[in-house]
Amino acid sequence: MDLYCxxxxxxxxxxVIEYVRRKEKHMGIFLNPGNTAFxxxxxxxIYVDKTKLxxxxxxxxxxxxxxxxxxxxxxxxxxxxxxxxxxYYSKExxxxxxxxxxxITDCQxxxxxxxxxxxxYFDVQExxxxxxxxxxxxxxxxxxxxxxxxxxxxxTIPSDTKTVSEALNYINQATENRFVIIIDEWDAMxxxxxxxxxxxxxxxxxxxxxxKGAGARRFIALAxxxxxxxxxxxxxxxxxxxxxxxxxxNPGPIxxxxxxxxxxxxVLCKTYNKDFGNIRRWYDGYRLSGLHIYNPFAxxxxxxxxxxxxxxxxxxxYESVKDLISIDFDGLRKDVIELxxxxxxxxxxxxxxxxxxxxxxxxxxxxxLIHLGYLAYNPEEESAExxxxxxxxxxxKAVQSVKWTEILDFLKESERLLVAVNRKDNNEVAKIIEAxxxxxxxxxxxxDENSLSYVLDKAFLATMNFYFKPKRELPAxxxxxxxxxxxxxxxxxxxxxxxxxxxxxxxxxxxIDQIKKKQYQETIKEYTDNILFIGIxxxxxxxxxxxxxxxxxx
Length: 554
What we know:
Blueprint: H1 8-11, H2 16-24, H3 36-43, H4 52-58, E1 67-71, H5 78-89, E2 118-123, H6 124-131, H7 137-152, H8 164-175, E3 179-184, H9 188-192, H10 197-211, H11 214-219, E4 220-227, E5 233-234, E6 237-238, E7 244-246, E8 260-261, H12 262-272, H13 276-283, E9 286-288, E10 291-294, H14 296-305, H15 318-325, H16 332-340, E11 344-346, H17 362-372, E12 376-378, E13 383-385, H18 389-402, H19 405-422, H20 426-440, H21 449-459, E14 471-476, E15 479-485, E16 497-504, H22 508-517, H23 521-524, E17 531-539, E18 544-551
Parallel strand pairs: 1-4, 1-7, 2-3, 3-4, 16-17
Antiparallel strand pairs: 5-6, 8-10, 9-10, 11-13, 12-13, 14-15, 15-16, 17-18
């Protein structure tokens, strides 16, 4: 075979010998592309075993539940999982040795489906790039997959076959073979061209032709698609409603298989002699199915590079946050201030259309930020919060670039408050807190006990420059401190840790006495001995605030 016999699109990918070898083995770019990518992952300096995901997908092979969609933010291990499934299922990969010693080999299902299927695998973002335009992408995928299927099954597929689903039907009828279909970055069409509705509709039609109907039930053994966004909705219905979906809102039983669990991070810290406490303060914050989940990209880079910083900018950009929070929805700016201050906000994420352009209210914006990983979702409280210091840093950059007057004004007052706190100026602190209370809480809620906590969040907004995200109800000493602000290491010389106790219709001294009696400082002393006790009381009748600040003396 010479170069001119190789289809044009493959000439840039293969030399002649490689192409012939793959053709003889039924291997291609889209059909059974091999296990090299997963082999590289396993051989990496830092590899965390997530192979039990395979045992999860195996239970749905050739069942009505064989359609699975997993959505996670960037750098959460989505592509590695897709590469792993490809290496496991592809009949041309011969991967038993590659999986030796990994967790899946202890599972009963391991050998049942190992390298037993033809796998069609493609990355939609890569296809967009290769097609050289988003409008040509569906045709590029269709023609590429058809071409490789015809090479693998030359006597089975009629020459006038126009769609992938037709070809798979012909193969299944002739051979009874069933396919595993894996799509990475399935949602790239929606993210790359958010306003091209006609292209989106053609893409959804392409996916429906693959995954819906009697044909798909016959020729598919397993379908696994992954991306950042859940499956696109129209109104309240999923466009692919036969898929089981696992998202940042509803992670389900696959939560342990994406991201690093806390115990896995602890093992890495021990292996590489890193301070687990500092890593937890910087990168912990996602709660999925009751588990503490860390972004693998951040943890891996911290271990390899040694710098505590935000690595999020390398996997996404704060421009996404800036554009979203700039949308003029009522209540959104108030919520962003609360989020920056370390608080949480109520959100209903279930009406979001799962794209980058359909926003009806602030809930849709917050829902998208959850799926992008910029917010963590708490299903019990139906609320969202900034998950950790890394993301808080990106939020801070985004908000400062927007230059909202409200935030700039609050920051100015909050900076005055921190100066007054450091001077232990009780009257000035009480005066500033009272002013924030007057301007940020409605008359109807003014005497709501929860409003005082909200007021403190806003009043101490400037702590985001020098302190970690505040800890609420922190287990400390012999009880739970209301709010604790721990300074970042580089600021501990000039900024003491703050232990804040709130009282309602009592007095500030009672708050200070409680801090001392229950020894709230004991947990904080491992970070710094420079600690201020702050007691704050609000009197409901007079609507006056009282503050008492004392320095901890060891």
